[in-house]
Model the fold of this input.
Amino acid sequence: MSWFFETKLRQSEKNGPIIATRFFGIWRVIVEGVEQTGPNAHRVWIDAFQHLKNLFPTKRIQRVVLLGLGGGGEIKTIYKAFPGVILTVLEYDSAMITLTKELKLYHPYPLPEIIVGDVKETLPQLSSSADLLIVDIFQGENPSPLLTDPTFIDSLSHALGIGGLLLINVFKRKEYLEYPKTHFALIAKWPFLWNHLALFQKP
Done:
């Protein structure tokens, strides 16, 4: 083990090989050649949360639900962006959850509640409405096909309170940002690095 370079390999039934590497203290988590946690992903979410705050400077975000753990690299980012927030994470890959607990990238903040299971099943079971729902779920570099499923879009709507915000990253597949328009008002969409993101609001 070295602070300068370290690597961890985890075999996942859901994602296949998960590769985590640390170089000069900075961790990157890679699945199918795509960065799940790392400097680029971090820049994407810093920028996204700034977009949200610019558009809704007075909105109070008390409860956030994150779909997709991705090595846990952005747990700290969410806590810092929305002080005092209650965070719940939905993740279908137990191997990714185990890796997140090993890397502890959320320190010094606490590990949030993580619910393991398919989001089609776990999302409708949430007992409290969210103020912000973040969707960052992929199969390799492709967004989850759930984003094209009207039933799933309906579940996203039910998980949010009135006026709640939906923030979605679809990487390169910006056409996926059209599907939530059936249930949500589009507030803004923007590119950042190789990613396309959009912010929606529940009427």
Summary: The radius of gyration is 16 Å. Residues 35-201 form a domain with the Rossmann fold fold (CATH 3.40.50.150). The mean pLDDT is 94. DSSP finds five helices and 13 strands in the chain.
